[in-house]
Automatic annotation (TrEMBL):
It comes from Mycolicibacter sinensis (strain JDM601) (Mycobacterium sinense). Pfam families: Bac_luciferase. Residues 20-209 form the Luciferase-like domain. Keywords: Flavoprotein, FMN, Monooxygenase, Oxidoreductase. One of its GO terms (biological process) is alkanesulfonate catabolic process. This is LLM class F420-dependent oxidoreductase. Transmembrane segments: none annotated.
Length: 305
C-alpha cells in the first residue's frame, strides 16, 4: 500500500502560511521524511464566490506548485487531485506534464477529472456540456504527443497538424482517471493507468455530479465493475492502480484518530484491490498539518511497512 495526500488548502480564505514558499516546502519535506509516497494539489483556477461561500476552498496552480515542491524533495511523487482536463488545451497539459516529469526525475502521475463547477467552466470559456468528450479527446492527444512526433489531431476546438513537442518525458507518466461513475471506470479501463474515485455520500455526490461512494461495499462493487471493463478491453486489470480514502480510523490530527483501526481498514482496502490510499491532512495551520503528517508516519506508515 502506498500513501498520498492532497496539500491541505481546505478553506476560503485559506491559512496564509500554507500558501507561502516556506509552507509548501515544509509540508513537502515533512511528508517525504514521514514516508509518504505522493503529494498533490487541487485545480480551481476560477472558482465562484458562491462555491467558496458554500464550503469551497482556495487553491494554488497545481503544475506550478508541484514543480516548486519537486525542487525541494527527492523521492516524493506528485499526483494532482485532480487536473480538470477540459479547462486546458491538451497540448498545454502535455507540455506541463512532460516538463514536470523531466525536472522531477520521473516523479509525476497525471490524475485527471471532468470537473463539475459550471461557473468555473463559464469563466474559462469552456462548454460544460462538452466536458466528457473533451476529456476523452485530450487523453488521446496527451499520450500521442508524449510518445510520438508529427502528431495530427482534429479536435472539437483545435486543428493540430504535424505537431512535435520536445523534450518528451523520459518515460510516459501514468494517467489516473478520477470519478466514481461507470464512464470514469470505462475511461480508466481503455485510456488510463489508474482509477481514483473519492469518498462521497449522496449529498456530496450530487454536488460533484458523480455517483455516491460511501462504503467499502460500494467501492468493491466499483472495482469489480472496473475489472469487467478491463476484461472487455483486453487489459490486465492488475496493472491498474486504485486510489481511495480509508473510511476507518477517524480523522487524522483530531482526538478521534485511531491508528489501530486505521491499519485494520488498510487491510480491508488491500483485500478489495486498493493500491494507494488518499490521506486527509488537516489544514487549520502549518504546524498542525506537519504534526499530523509526522503522527501518520509514526503510527501508520511505519506499522504498515
Amino acid at each position: 500500500m502506498r500513501f498520498a495526500f492532497t496539500y491541505p488548502i481546505i478553506t476560503h480564505p485559506c491559512n496564509p502560511e500554507l500558501v507561502s514558499p516556506h509552507g509548501v516546502t515544509a509540508v513537502a519535506k515533512a511528508a517525504e521524511a514521514a514516508g509518504f509516497d505522493a503529494m498533490g494539489f487541487t485545480d480551481h483556477p476560477a472558482p465562484t464566490q458562491r462555491w467558496l461561500d458554500a464550503g469551497g476552498h482556495d487553491s494554488l496552480d497545481p503544475f506550478v506548485a508541484m514543480g516548486f515542491a519537486a525542487a525541494h524533495t527527492r523521492t516524493l511523487r506528485f499526483i494532482p487531485n485532480v487536473v480538470v482536463l477540459p479547462y486546458r488545451n491538451p497540448f498545454v497539459v502535455a507540455k506541463s506534464g512532460a516538463t514536470l516529469e523531466l525536472l522531477s526525475g520521473g516523479r509525476f502521475t497525471l490524475a485527471v477529472g471532468v470537473g463539475y463547477l459550471k461557473g468555473e467552466f463559464a469563466a474559462l470559456g469552456v462548454d460544460f456540456d462538452e466536458r466528457t468528450a473533451l476529456v476523452e479527446e485530450s487523453l488521446d492527444v496527451i499520450r500521442a504527443i508524449w510518445t510520438g512526433d508529427d502528431v495530427s489531431f482534429e479536435g472539437r476546438h483545435f486543428s493540430a497538424r504535424g505537431i512535435t513537442a520536445h523534450p518528451r518525458p523520459s518515460s510516459c507518466p501514468p494517467i489516473w482517471i478520477g470519478g466514481n461513475t461507470g464512464r470514469a471506470r470505462q475511461r480508466a479501463a481503455t485510456r488510463g493507468d489508474g482509477w481514483a474515485p473519492f469518498a462521497a455520500p449522496a449529498g456530496l455526490a450530487g454536488t460533484a455530479r458523480t455517483a455516491a461512494m460511501d462504503s467499502l461495499d460500494a467501492l468493491a462493487a466499483g472495482i469489480e465493475d472496473l475489472r469487467r471493463r478491463c476484461d472487455q478491453a483486453n487489459r490486465d486489470w492488475s496493472t491498474i492502480d486504485i486510489c481511495f480514502s480509508n473510511l476507518a480510523g477517524g480523522r487524522l490530527g483530531y482526538d478521534d484518530f485511531d491508528a489501530s483501526a486505521y491499519l485494520d481498514g488498510l487491510g480491508r482496502l488491500t483485500d478489495v484491490g486498493v493500491t494507494w490510499v488518499q490521506v486527509a491532512v488537516p489544514g487549520d495551520s502549518l504546524t498542525g498539518a506537519i504534526e499530523a503528517i509526522e503522527q501518520f508516519g509514526e503510527s501508520v506508515i511505519k506499522e504498515a511497512r
